[in-house]
Amino acid sequence: MGNEVSRATENFFQKYGRAATSRSIVGRLLKFTKFGEFRAGQEEEEIKRGTKLAAAMDTLQVGYVLWQDNRPADAVMGRVVDGFVPPKRETLGHLDKSRWESFDDGRPRDPWQFSNQIVFVGQESGEQFTFSTSSRGGLDAIGQLCLEHGKRIRQKPDEVPIIALEVGSYQHSNRAYGEIRFPIFRVVGSMPAKDLPAIDGADEQQQLEAPDDDSDGGELSM
């Protein structure tokens, strides 16, 4: 009995440990710029609008990333498929706003950023990309993808969505921000999850980039 409890407890520790350290990048980092462009990797290659990618939904992680000196210093993230529930922001510390870094316009920037991260796979090339976002527009795009996937898996539980990279925009209520562009992951089909290539190991040389100052609709805190 004691050994069974010990093993169960160890599994809980391991599960939390994986969640608390999950911030590595698979393949090339895919980002969406304030200019409405999808850019990949350190060379910032433009990925054209309309490019079709398979969404590896089992890789979707949610949680918080701690930013210090424009670098990720810590993370508490876990996979949605595992039922991971992000902690409340106030439990993570760093609550003194007078010690926070600032955006360019002087607003304080919470060092703990609520984030989503998912792996996309090129439908034709098989290349893997990690899309990581803390912006409102990026989080909304992943949220819409999840809603669509949630509907489809009722009939096709063993399939993953194929999305096309698209861009939307709106005029910000504050004229200083002008036109705000945001990513759209339009579902255009599906494919068997078993046909996805094995997800590569993390490239430790890649780094996430500090969240922009309202680049596509603003950061979102939970």
Description:
The structure is a single chain. The chain has 222 residues and is an alpha+beta fold. The protein is 17% helix and 38% strand. It has one domain (2-195). The chain has 2 helices and 11 strands, in the order αβββββββββαββ.
Largest sheet properties: 9 strands, mixed
Order of helices and strands: HEEEEEEEEEHEE
Point out poorly predicted stretches.
Answer: 215-222
Number of strands: 11
Tell me the helix content.
Answer: 10-25%
The N- and C-terminal alpha carbons lie at a distance of: 40 Å
Q: How much is the radius of gyration in Å?
A: 18 Å
Number of domains: 1
Percent strand equals: 35-45%
Cα shape: globular
Structural class: alpha+beta
Mean pLDDT across residues: 85
SS field, number of helical segments: 2
Helices and strands in order:
Blueprint: H1 2-21, E1 28-32, E2 38-40, E3 45-47, E4 52-68, E5 71-79, E6 101-102, E7 108-109, E8 112-122, E9 128-133, H2 136-152, E10 159-171, E11 179-192
Parallel strand pairs: 1-9
Antiparallel strand pairs: 1-2, 2-3, 4-5, 4-8, 4-10, 6-7, 8-9, 10-11
